[in-house]
Write a structure and sequence with these properties.
Layout (H helix, E strand, L loop, with lengths): L5 H8 L22 E11 L6 E7 L2 E6 L6 E6 L5 E6 L6 E7 L2 E6 L4 E6 L5 E6 L7 E3 L4 E4 L4 E5 L6 E6 L1 E2 L2 E2 L3 E7 L2 E6 L4 E5 L6 E6 L16 E7 L4 E6 L4 E9 L13
Parallel strand pairs: 1-19
Antiparallel strand pairs: 1-22, 2-3, 3-4, 4-5, 6-7, 7-8, 8-9, 10-11, 11-12, 12-13, 14-15, 16-17, 17-18, 18-19, 20-21, 21-22
């Protein structure tokens, strides 16, 4: 673990204007580009710099994190305020851990190329069952009823959490252009937020149509001096639906950051509602 430089916090707080998320969905005309969003950092939390973050979830005051790389993959329960790992289970060395999500009292975790997922009891990380799927596993999220799985393509698969059987697919697109490299996923106020691998952007996706209804630009969120390796990229989105708090991090990053969003070019009202 490393201390966060005061310059990082100072740089982030220079960003102007916050616009918290609420329960409505942004829309735009199909003939116009989706709206662009910038960010303001609200708070910075410590993060284990050895964690190759593949999945991130907020639940009841704690972060749950899935990490990757063969021989280093794990599922963790983390104290948000300190970054302390409170509970951990390691995957076998043959598995490269990927996205995670929580449905009820169960944690689901994907693996990259093994076609195997793991389902744990959220209380003690006891392995409940294994599930299988075709292709690669990248990101995972839930609307509380279904699982949304990304595999690096422009397709998001919607699965039944009980059977892990595919129900349908979304083709993610920005206007007529398919958008691939979709990685970590999170449901945020009725939209699917998706990291686009090796970029500083998060796509806001309609779970009904696959249309991108907004882009979040997180350039400058973390200085390049903190990126220890070329793969230390933005990857990790978690949302607190009660406190309306949005958290982001990256692979091997020293921090988890709570941020709010602002639509580029639009000043937020005094009583800020949804970022439209």
């Amino acid at each position: 673990m490393k201390r966060i430089s005061a310059s990082l916090i100072g740089l982030a707080l220079l960003m102007c204007g916050c616009w918290p998320l609420t329960g409505q969905t942004s829309h735009h005309s199909s003939s116009s580009a989706p709206p662009q969003y910038t960010f303001t950092v609200v708070r910075v939390f410590l993060h284990d710099t050895s964690a190759y973050t593949q999945g991130l979830v907020y639940r009841d005051g704690f972060l749950y994190e899935g990490t990757g790389r063969n021989g280093q993959s794990s599922l963790r329960k983390v104290r948000l305020e300190t970054g302390e790992v409170l509970q951990k289970v390691n995957l076998g060395t043959e598995f490269f851990g990927e996205g995670i999500t929580i449905v009820g009292d169960q944690v689901f975790q994907l693996t990259w190329k093994s076609g195997v997922g793991f389902v744990y009891d959220v209380k003690d990380f006891r392995l409940l069952r294994k599930v299988s799927y075709s292709g690669e596993g990248w990101g995972l999220a839930t609307n509380g009823r279904e699982l949304f799985l990304s595999d690096g393509t422009a397709q998001i698969r919607i699965l039944d959490p009980e059977t892990f059987q595919e129900k349908r697919r979304l083709k993610v697109h920005d206007g007529p252009t398919a958008v691939d490299q979709l990685n970590e996923l999170e449901f945020v106020e009725g939209q699917v937020f998706a990291n686009v691998w090796h970029t500083n952007r998060i796509a806001r996706i309609s779970p009904q149509t696959g249309e991108i209804v907004g882009w979040i630009d997180l350039s400058g969120l973390l200085s390049s001096v903190y990126r220890l390796q070329p793969e230390a990229v933005l990857n990790g989105i978690a949302y607190d639906p009660v406190g309306k708090r949005l958290f982001v991090t990256g692979k091997l990053w020293p921090s988890v950051l709570e941020i709010t969003l602002k639509r580029r070019g639009v000043a937020p009202p005094r009583n800020a509602g949804v970022a439209r």
